[in-house]
Design brief:
By secondary structure, this protein is α+β, with helices and mostly antiparallel strands. The protein has helices spanning about 5-10, 65-70, 90-100, 105-130, 130-145, 160-165, 170-180, and strands spanning about 15, 20-25, 30-40, 40-45, 50-60, 65, 80, 85-90, 185-190, 190-195. A hairpin with a 2-residue loop joins β9 and β10 (about 190-195). The longest helix is centred in the middle third of the chain and has 27 residues, at about 105-130. It starts with a helix and ends with a strand.
């Protein structure tokens, strides 16, 4: 995302987080730009019955939680580390100064946010009107496209993560993936999913 040298020029701090540690909670005021140096985290919401709905996964080199900075609002989801993480943190005021002084970086952020908005739009449509097969294939194809893979792509999501991202029960995901294999729409090898 933003080159490390530029983040350091604006005095971003580097903070270490442990696995399962929360970076920020839903409804907290957005005050920082976050960019992962190492590690992986998820952003998610909890439903009233306690089920997690994963908004997305973010790993080394990716930023997260920017939209509320631009509208001075609260975080719409919780961010939690899946692994130990090192994360660059830049206060909002310095982040905006950086964007004003580095228009190429501003454009990169805008493109990233646009991709995320398109993904969210697709997922909302999937959750509201499409059957499980379509939901799962759309999600998996999104990850394949994001990886710019034209070859056989190994899906890096667990069945539980697919469930959390599509709003389906794990049992439904397992059954649907087996059916998709029978229909030759994906490949299963040693319990791994390939497209």
């Amino acid at each position: 995302m933003i080159p490390i040298a530029i983040l350091e020029e604006y005095e971003a701090s580097l903070k270490s987080y442990t696995k399962d540690q929360v970076v920020f909670r839903e409804h907290e005021q957005a005050q920082f730009y976050y960019q992962i140096k190492t590690g992986k985290l998820k952003m998610f919401n909890h439903s009233e019955d306690g089920k997690a709905f994963i908004q997305g996964f973010f790993e080394s080199g990716k930023s997260f939680g920017e939209p509320p900075l631009f509208q001075d609002s609260n975080y719409p989801a919780c961010a939690q580390c899946i692994t130990d993480c090192s994360i660059y943190i830049l206060p909002k005021e310095r982040f905006f100064s950086l964007l004003k002084n580095h228009p190429k970086e501003h454009l990169k952020i805008t493109k990233t946010l646009s991709k995320r908005m398109i993904y969210k739009s697709k997922i909302i449509q999937e959750l509201s009107i499409h059957p499980p097969e379509h939901r799962i294939l759309t999600l998996l194809n999104h990850f394949k496209e994001t990886a710019n893979s034209t070859d056989l792509y190994e899906v890096q999501l667990t069945r539980q993560q697919i469930s959390d991202m599509t709003g389906l029960r794990v049992e439904t995901v397992i059954r649907t993936i087996k059916q998709l294999e029978k229909d030759h729409k994906l490949i299963l090898k040693r319990h791994k999913v390939f497209l």
